[in-house]
Amino acid sequence: MSANYKRFSKFLLGGLSVGCVGGYFAYKNQNKPIGLNPEVYSPFTVSKITKITPDASIFTLTPQGSTENMKNWDPITKVTIRNPDMQVQRPYTPLYINEDNLKFYIRNYEDGPVSSHIHSKKEGDTIELRGPFKTTKLDFTKFSRIVGIVAGTGFAPIYQLAQNSKVPVDIVYCERPGQEPALKEQLEKECPNVRVRTIQDRLIDVDDIMKWDNVNVPLSETLCIICGNPKFVATVAGPKAEYGAKQGPVKGLLENSSFGKVWKL
């Protein structure tokens, strides 16, 4: 056997080996579920369900695919979750970002096609997500203090923001009468820069928002964020514009306030 033939044989065998290995990994990756992305829905496993109130739980979802798009998120970031049986989707804000799983505080509404779909799941089941998406283009680092006015599960966006903020965050948390203010103590424990004031047995008023002890930051350097259902947002700061993403004028309880910025989520 000639030397040239031996060299050719070794080259051919080496090429076949590389091709086989490459083909195997290509096949393996082809069959791996797609990771979180903004274009198509990807599968997540319900790895844990923690009941917080009779009708609300924290759902911990772990991606079945890559975690590549689950890092370096900026607050406030959201995803959409869908009910594939009804082809309906809703936005949800995870409590934490930049982790290997996503935790959502979700209340079960009987007439909510997506929330009821999520609450029907058990640990080990699959839920489909798409994202991430920025909730707002606001630069939170421009402000020296943040005031959050939230109701119900509208607590989630300000919870995520507080986890990633270095400035003082004062939160007015409105909850239904008799409903335990979920996650209040947990957030204050995790974030020393956060104070949470709860309102349950009465309507929120201006003093709840404006009067805080030991505040050394002027209102002109303070960002005020409102998050809740449309009626709650309108009561606090006036309704958002009916069309597009426009904020609309500041009305309601904050009409005469001097906050540097008022933002309705």
CATH architecture type of the largest domain: 3-Layer(aba) Sandwich
Biggest sheet statistics: 6 strands, antiparallel
CATH topology of the largest domain: Rossmann fold
Average pLDDT over all residues: 88
Question: How does the helix and strand content classify structurally?
Answer: alpha/beta
pLDDT < 50 runs, ≥5 residues: 4-29
Strand order of the largest sheet: 4-3-6-1-2-5
The fraction of residues assigned to DSSP E strands is 25-35%
- Our count of helices gives 6
CATH superfamily of the largest domain: Nucleotide-binding domain of ferredoxin-NADP reductase (FNR) module
CATH class of the largest domain: Alpha Beta
| End-to-end C-alpha gap | 78 Å
Shape: globular
Q: What is the total tally of β strands? A: 11
Give the proportion of residues in helices: 10-25%
Write down the secondary-structure element order.
HEEEEEHEEHEHEHEHE
Radius of gyration: 24 Å
Number of structural units classed as domains: 2
GO molecular function: oxidoreductase activity
Organism: Schizosaccharomyces cryophilus (strain OY26 / ATCC MYA-4695 / CBS 11777 / NBRC 106824 / NRRL Y48691)
Binding site for FAD: 90-92, 114-115
InterPro entries: CBR-like (IPR001834), Cbr1-like_FAD-bd_dom (IPR008333), FAD-bd_FR_type (IPR017927), FNR_nucleotide-bd (IPR039261), Riboflavin_synthase-like_b-brl (IPR017938)
